[in-house]
Amino acid sequence: MSKVEQTIDVDVPLRNVYDQWTQFEEFPSFMEGVEDVRQIDARHCHWRTKVAGVRREFDTEIVDQLPDQRIAWRTTGGDVRQMGVVSFQPLDEGHTRVRLAMDVEPDGMAEKAADAMGMLDRRVKGDLKRFKGFMEDHGHATGGWRGRIRPQDADTARTGGAGTGSMTDPSTGSTGMGSGPMREAPGPAETPGSTRMPRETRSWELPSDDEPGMP
Asked: Which fold has domain 2-153?
């Protein structure tokens, strides 16, 4: 399992930076090797990538999402096995620090060779630089979703598929991400003038005011 961690400071306010990261279908605009991301619902996406000349398709699930603080995910099926968390820290009113940490299982000779040469680290670093450029060029988010997804509600009762097995949460060092049915928060973007795929509305609850952020 390869661990990657990169950090970058973006000259844009926290809310706009966080909101833009929730626009998963726009990831190909700044992520190298990501050909397409299709959002299925509030928690799930289907990805098509081409890395080191190898095409992969896989599914991801968000297991923890707290507006303006963090988004954590894991793979649940397909050709890729990974989990990670992106966290957001306000530096002042106009600047935001973005930290991306991932655990990735290279698969195949080409990907293992690329990992051995440090290409994954460089690719993630490049992705964050392109995201910084994207945000600073636009100055605002193209959309946003500010619902709450809780780790204790994530469904870990799976058998088979790329998302099974023990993986270490790069944000906490623990394995697994909770159990039980997921509650989805309501509604699409709050960013004015944005367009966004509607998300399914179900029962939900607001996070408590004293809920801790990233360690």
From this structure: Alpha-D-Glucose-1,6-Bisphosphate; Chain A, domain 4 (3.30.530)
